[in-house]
Each structure stands twice: as structure tokens, then as C-alpha cells.
């Protein structure tokens, strides 16, 4: 449902088109640089940071992603030194935690992403920014949302 002339669209098709373009931009921008985690890694690290001791099964349920996908993310983040898993029975899943290095990496990535947002909003008025944030929040938590208003992602 993507159209070349996004600005000529109106109503829900215009919103959909802009969301598709924004999502693509978030998914592909700077994702493989050494100092910037992929959007999947960022989401994963952020979740662990907010839910210390969570298990891969919980992440799988919240993200709606197959456990094997989460297991690959866990392994990659452990190998990178960003996450550690408590010992325990594998069947239950091991509690996951950010390492100090993982927290620093995530904090730096968050700061860079916030800087990107700030630079895009540099010529917006404060009221435009507030209205945009309210509209995004309202859209995200709508009753038809696929995440059921879950603030943990």
C-alpha cells in the first residue's frame, strides 16, 4: 500500500505510508556500525535493562517472536559482553542482566538516537513537539494496537 507521492495521500493511507517509511528508516539506518546496535539489539537490551532478571521466554512472549530468534539475540549480546545469564536449568531459561559494558553501550546508543530526534525537531515549536508526542502516544496505546498498550517494548 506504499505510494510514491506520500504527501498526496490523506487520512489513514497517509498515516500508514509514513509509518512504513519511518519503520524502514529505523530498521536500516546505521544498524551495522560498531557503535550503534541494530533496532532488534536495542529493543532487546532496553527490555533487559528495564526488566532485570527476565528470561528469554518472557522476551519471546512480549515481543511476539519465536524463542529461537530471541536465543540468537541472547547469544550475540552475551558474546559481545553486553548481557550475562545467571546459571540455572536451561529448560526454565536463565535470568538475564545487562553488564556494565552493556549498560554503557545502551546508554550511548540512546543518547545518539535522542540526538537524532532532537536534530529532526530543531525547527519545530514546543507546542508542535508536544502535540506530536501526544498523537504518537495516543496512536500507540489505541485499543486496536497489536501490543495492547504494553509500555515494556
From TrEMBL:
Pfam families on file: MarR_2
Residue span(s) of domain HTH marR-type: 30-129
Domain of life the protein comes from: Bacteria
Protein name: MarR family winged helix-turn-helix transcriptional regulator
